[in-house]
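Lest this sound abstract, we think one record worth quoting, the chain in one-letter code, the fold tokenised, each line plainly labelled:

>
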Amino acid sequence: MNGRFICFILISYLLIACDAEEKKPLVDVGGQPQAIFNIRVENKPGGAKIYYSLPDDPSMLYVMAEYRTTDKGDVQRVKSSVFKNFIELEGFGREQTYQIKLYGVNRAEHKSTPVDVTIHPERPYVHSLYDSLKVSAAFGGVAINLKNIDEVDNVVHISYKDSIGEWVDYDRYYSNSKEVYYAVRGFEAKPTQFAFWITDKWQNSSDTLFAELTPLYEEELDKSLWKDAALLDDFNDPLYGPLSQLWTPGSRTYFFQNKNNIEASGMPTWITIDLGKNYFIGRMKLNQVSHSNTWRYGSCSPRLFQIYGSNSPSTDWNKWDLLGDFESIKPSELPVGQLSDADLKRNAEGEDFSFQSSDQSYRYVRFKALETWGNVQYMCALELTLWGQVDE
């Protein structure tokens, strides 16, 4: 009993001694390191790249910059490894002068005397993107055009003024594409006040573009008028039901090109539809075959495709106008064969695609698949739907 008591006392003493021990850096490298030197600034849109030389000090761990992007904002800190001779600063929302403090920091987390550096970022991307922003009326809503040459991340915000004069946030569109065409739907064909602006990932904001626009009236094209145009070079040979199943509603009324037709198989591949009337075409929905995961973002489901229009259907592609290049996007970006809940939701809803506004109407359309999700040499789809306005 006494032995156990003595062991308890010893262990308690050791624990207390450990707690009382002064916390010290893991590496004892002395005091304050020398400051960095030989500073050179390269200003960039919304930021700067600062080059420097490091002192001959093997204990130096990294270089740290401290700065504010606004007068009353929090202090930002950015670090750069000693294996680099520069540090990059981003997120400045204005084209003006900013003061930066640069420190060398050693392995003991001791900071050098700060070096004061002045930068003057060039005009931030969010403002140059705004300069390229163009808006117009579209079928059932409004369309946005944007040029983003440097492919920077951005968000376009859309608001509208409701019936009691209140502004309502309606939609946000995230993109880093070079060319952006995006349409928002769900509006009546009456004059409406809209507001558009752009933000970046640092929440810098552009000016706001206000516009009164009247969305164009749209309706779903009457599929009872559609038929297979059956041009000589079409691959409309079905594995199961005829091409008309492509526009017949239902979970099992799908169209598969005949994969056993070796002569006709190959990419690109296409089919032609007679719409029965001339239409100004505004948008489209494509539903993938979905009664099994095999075809959800896989197998013969189109991934890259084009839509063409014509009023003089021919096997001569010069008689056709390209209406749009499209890509099926899998929300999760998981490899083929793996599906997230977001993928399944999007697949069930179908994918929406918009056409740029045009004063040309068409009676015939061609669906041209360039690549399928499974890289097979034939395509399949559950249903194709188009919206627009009949050309009376």
